[in-house]
Design brief:
single chain, about 425 residues, alpha+beta, about 40% helix, disordered N terminus, binds 3,4-dihydroxyphenylalanine
Length: about 425
């Protein structure tokens, strides 16, 4: 008994011996059933016009029938979108692919190897076939496209295709805390302002009561923009060292009362270490009105710290110095790690220094007195806090650099 393999080979051989036209006659045009025996380019032995017409007809008939089949598949609702698109593409490639498409095979197999006297006959017919095939492929593509785009959009959508994943990211921890701080003050009725990062000497220092050459300037060394020697000192541009200049900018625009917080980026000529960065963020606060006292400052900041760190946090105010406030204080919170008992983080003091604050110095009001800031009638408090510092504490992060390196493994922990 012949093996299955032998049997299959015998069938194939039988098939090869039947001319394509006979094959189509026997089978009828290929039906919706896929995997029809496909047309193969026969070898030419007879170059008579009649024989040439015959093989050309076979080729064209095969082409027409494959075109119909490809179009059927391209519109078959039981197939996936990709399969439908592929039906036309593989039909096209099969016929017109430059390398081994049927047209290429016909040209090389029939035309190139034709005897000299038959070249003309073959050439004319091949050219006609090429034109028919090119037009037919184009028509099939157009019809398939038309059919596709006239489908209701839901059917054009292949919901079985895997989706494209776009990680949307999360807010950076520093900006998140900055927003949180701002939100705490907004809830108390503060408005929110901003100011320029490239600032003049006047706003950054002079109007905040840092006179030229005053030693307090040394505590906030920064970068000056080059080539400004011809300008008066107060107009020279620098990268702002704090958000406090926006206090003056705000008071120039707005008469009292004022309650405002100002988040933003600031710059210092500070070397990078575990807790310092030459670029960092601050949130500034300013409240000016009649009868504002140090009690208001204490109550406001105490409330804000409880909102940020939890209601068990305590605050205390320690005498300090800033040129633009008098009196000035450093505000400390009870250590959020040990609750005030004393640990390594608070250097066993139970307290952590968090921000600078004070009552607005009358000298500062002098710069804006034309706008209603008469220090005999109004008073105010101000404060400024480092956002990174609060973020480091809140999330127990040990290295400030982690905020700037953009390492997703770090950042995704805040998702
Ligand atoms: N600007 C100060 C700094 O960057 C912080 C500061 C202290 C701001 C006291 C204030 C304040 O508004 O009243 O070091």
């Amino acid at each position: 008994m012949p093996s299955d393999n032998q049997h299959a080979r015998a069938l194939d051989d039988a098939y090869e011996n039947v001319s394509p036209s006979e094959r189509y006659k026997a089978e009828g045009a290929p039906s919706a059933a896929r995997h029809e025996p496909m047309y193969t380019v026969p070898k030419l032995e007879d170059y008579s016009p009649a024989a040439l017409d015959g093989v050309m007809q076979d080729a064209q008939r095969a082409f027409d029938s494959e075109k119909t089949q490809a179009l059927d598949e391209a519109q078959d609702p039981n197939l996936g979108q990709l399969e439908r698109a592929n039906a036309i593409k593989s039909f096209r490639d099969r016929w017109v692919a430059r390398r081994n498409g049927i047209l290429a095979q016909i040209t090389s197999g029939w035309l190139t190897s034709a005897p000299a006297q038959a070249k003309r006959d073959v050439g004319q017919r091949v050219n006609r076939l090429v034109a028919v095939v090119a037009a037919g492929v184009e028509e099939a593509e157009r019809a398939a496209n038309l059919a596709f785009f006239s489908l209701p959009s839901l059917q054009r959508l292949d919901i079985t295709l895997p989706g494209v994943q776009r990680p949307i990211g999360v807010k950076h921890p520093v900006l998140r805390v900055q927003d949180e701080i701002v939100a705490v003050f907004k809830a108390m009725g503060y408005s929110v302002g901003e100011g320029p990062e490239v600032e003049t000497d006047y706003y950054n220092f002079e109007s905040l009561n840092f006179p030229p050459n005053h030693p307090a300037r040394d505590t906030q060394d920064t970068l000056f923009i080059a080539g400004q020697e011809s300008k008066p000192a107060r107009d020279r541009l620098l990268l702002r060292t704090h958000t406090s200049p926006v206090q003056i900018r705000t008071m120039e625009k707005q008469s009292p009362p004022v309650r405002i917080v100002i988040p933003g980026k600031v710059h210092r000529n500070d070397p990078l270490d575990a807790t310092h960065s030459p670029v960092f963020h601050q949130v500034e606060g300013l409240a000016v009105d009649t009868n504002i006292t140090f009690c208001d400052l204490k109550g406001t900041l105490d409330h804000a710290m409880k909102a940020l760190f939890g209601s068990s946090v305590k605050t205390r105010f320690y005498p300090s110095f800033f040129p633009f406030t008098e009196p000035s204080a450093d505000m400390q919170v009870s250590c959020i790690f040990c609750g005030g008992k004393g640990c390594r983080k608070c250097k066993f003091s139970g307290w952590i220094e968090l921000l600078g604050c004070g009552m607005v110095d009358p000298n500062v009001f002098e710069f804006v007195k034309h706008n209603g800031y008469d220090s005999s009638k109004i008073s105010g408090f101000a404060f400024g806090m480092g956002v990174e510092r609060i973020t480091l504490l809140k999330y127990e992060v040990e290295e400030i650099q982690l905020f700037y390196e953009g390492d997703v493994r770090f950042l995704e922990q805040f998702a």
